[in-house]
Amino acid sequence: MPPLIDAATRELLLVNGREPERDHQPVLKLCNPMGPATWLICAMEADGDTLYGLCDLGFGEPELGYVSLDELKEVSAGLAIGLERDLSFRGTYPISLYARAARAAGRIVELGSTPGI
Q1: Helical residues (DSSP H) of 42-114, grouped into ranges
Q2: How many DSSP H helices and E strands does the chain contain?
Q3: Cβ distance 117 to 71 under 8 Å?
Q4: CB neighbours (10 Å) of residue 109?
């Protein structure tokens, strides 16, 4: 199973993690291809495990917060095909706009060329 985070993405997440006050664009999208859970990750703390982003476990209440990379790896290992990284995802807006749209929709949604929010 390929790693959830490659070296280049890890480095970008760590750089973003050094500026926690900024409203970063998400750089990583992970999802459960067999279920509703999705994560948009924009930063990683120096510990290499604590990620920050928009977390949607599929209960209709996506929220900004922290998630453990080790825990995501455990979840992935327990799934038939594991969590997947959306390689085509490009975060084009600050995470706050994704969060606002997700709260309105009850799930993480794609933002078009004009988020309208």
Answers
A1: 69-77, 95-105
A2: 3, 5
A3: no
A4: 15
> Is 69 within 8 Å of 60 (Cβ atoms)?
no
Q: What amino acid is encoded at 17 in this protein?
A: G
| pTM recorded for the entire structure | 0.90
User: What is the C-alpha to C-alpha distance for residues 78 and 4, in angstroms, rounded to an integer?
Assistant: 14
Q: Which one-letter amino acid corresponds to residue 103? A: R
13-39 pLDDT tens trace: 999 999 999 999 999 999 988 888 999
Lookup result for tokens 């309208």: 116
How far is it, in rounded angstroms, from Cα 9 to Cα 86?
13
Backbone angles phi, psi at 54, to 5 degrees: -95, 120
Confidence of residue 78 (pLDDT cuts 50, 70, 90): confident
